[in-house]
Design a protein that fits this description.
By secondary structure, the protein is α/β, with parallel strands linked by helices. The protein contains 15 helices and 13 strands. Bound molecules: flavin mononucleotide. The site of flavin mononucleotide (FMN) has 21 residues, from β3 and α11. One of its GO terms (molecular function) is monooxygenase activity.
Amino acid sequence: MSKPLLFNAFLMNTASHIHHGQWRHPEARQHEFNDVNLWIELAKTLEEGLFDAMFFADVTGLYGPADGQYVDNVHEGLQIPSNDPAVLLGALAVATKNIGLAYTSNVMQNHPFNFARQVSTLDHISKGRIAWNIVTSTQENAARNFGFDALVEHDARYDWADEYLDVAYKLWEGSWDQDALLVDKQGERYADASKIHKINHVGARYKVEGPHLPSPSPQRTPLLFQAGGSARGISFAAKHAEAVFIGPPNPAGAKIHTDNARAEVVRAGRREEDLKFFQGISFIVGSTHAEVDAKREELERYTSVLGYLTHSSLGVLPDGSRLPEDTELRNIPNNGGQGHVDWLRAATPDREPTLADLAKNRIERGVVAGKPEEIADQLSAWQEAGIDGINVINWRLPDTYLEFNERILPTLQARGLAKTAYEPGTLRHKIFGRDRLPENHPGAAYRGAFGPRATALPPEFVTAGS
Ligand SMILES: Cc1cc2nc3c(=O)[nH]c(=O)nc-3n(C[C@H](O)[C@H](O)[C@H](O)COP(=O)(O)O)c2cc1C
């Protein structure tokens, strides 16, 4: 028997997230994303399928060049219109019991003081089932939406994220002692001021006094996801992340990525098993190969190549025209996501990939097709390549997940590749067997760092209590 994989549903609060064009299928319901009932029904389906988390991607602007046209984006429904996932999670938290609720938030879109408060509130509402996908944004338009002239340079965005996390850890882990909340009606004291601390953070971008306004939530720090694949992205993940979402085109690429990243985790003073890897996979399942082929043909009929190319942002000019498909990627300036180009290069070692390769790769990447037993074999191969979990990418809502539950899950369970019941407790407890960050994580260093118990720390860490 194999070890069970983890399973997330990869979602976005929009009509066209990854598989562009599929919203036009007559049975697709992703265009109903404004209706909270679509999501509540889906959440229940996913809990029936014992999914570990609903993982919401998010963006805060348009794909494409700054000052570029966005005709293709809106024709495709490509992440515009789109809604805020954090607000949706509040509704999903009360409609579910077990499933984790992961959402993406970039470091530009929210001040860390406010973001940390939002997360703590959601973690209270969900009783400890919140995860955060830490992203630095790849969109020039998003930078302009938040008052910047341009996107900060690629590696410097990760430096920014380092400080952002530092502020958030101080608030989540250091500001409140565990026994600060009293709610003592007779003693007329709601909380103990000597155990609630200002953090007095002063850094390159932020000055935050504190204290954190919410009392400690079940996980304090949410489960930390990250999704960058560049060298700087991997070193960032090795320091902070508890799970990473990766997208190499095949198990061989995943093996290189996971070996490399696990070695960095150990260099960062953590244990290999402290970081879980999730691969994005789209399934095409059939009882026969003829059924699989027919389904693939139907998906191809709705596929929008233009949508995939627009999503990649590469090769699109401000007037909406495009560079020729045989343009090599090394000839296109790229301050956006770089990991996906590195993964493509690793898969075409004999030559530099072109825009045509990029489009083809985006359409075919992570598609696992076949009879249920063949799908199980392929997932075993991904697992052997170092993958701990799968982010199940949908073609259609809710069909992709209904079909997964009915036609794929039973075989995976019989093979030991999927669990048969939820573990109790918080999301971190379900995945790692603990509610809180482990002691070797940088966030844990702020426990007891602000207040009377801080006397053993170097003077620059010691700040007055409240
Ligand atoms: C599988 C995957 C999913 C991602 N999801 C999002 C997302 O939802 N929102 C976002 O702004 N960026 C997203 N990104 C972008 C990354 O967070 C990161 O900013 C980008 O990949 C640049 O980092 P890199 O150059 O280290 O790869 C995603 C990246 C990958 C590989």
